[in-house]
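Morning!

This is the sequence you dropped in the shared folder:
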Amino acid sequence: MEVTRGRGLLASWCPQEAVLRHEAVALFLMHSGWNSTLESLSGGVPMLSWPFFAEQPTNSLYKRAKWGVAMDVGGGGDVRREAVEARIREAMGGEKGRAMRKRAAEWSEGAARATRLGGSSFGNLDSLIKDVLLSGRRS
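The structure's back. Tokens below.
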């Protein structure tokens, strides 16, 4: 705690979505779980993927190879501090990092459009409510 005083905060829990939307957050080191991936995309934050199991390797692959918003930390569960530092530096200052930030911003804009009134996600949720949840009700 003393070493990071004034430079960081260690908390037992925090509202991740709010943290990812903060202007000071430039990169998210994550295991690549689906919920965190969606929150990061919605917040426009590029990612460093460190997947372990279940859907995480697949999510990581898509984020890197298809969507262009992430880099892999590499090494599976045995990653050295130097490797993480090198990836952070590359993501924050390199050409690939600039491209990831641009793509993450595009994903964020798309998520905002989809969830607005008239957007695709808004419409799909509205249809679900009407067709499934309210279909048996009478007016």
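Headline: Helices lie at 16-20, 34-43, 56-66, 81-93, 95-115, 120-133.

More detail when I'm at my desk.
O.
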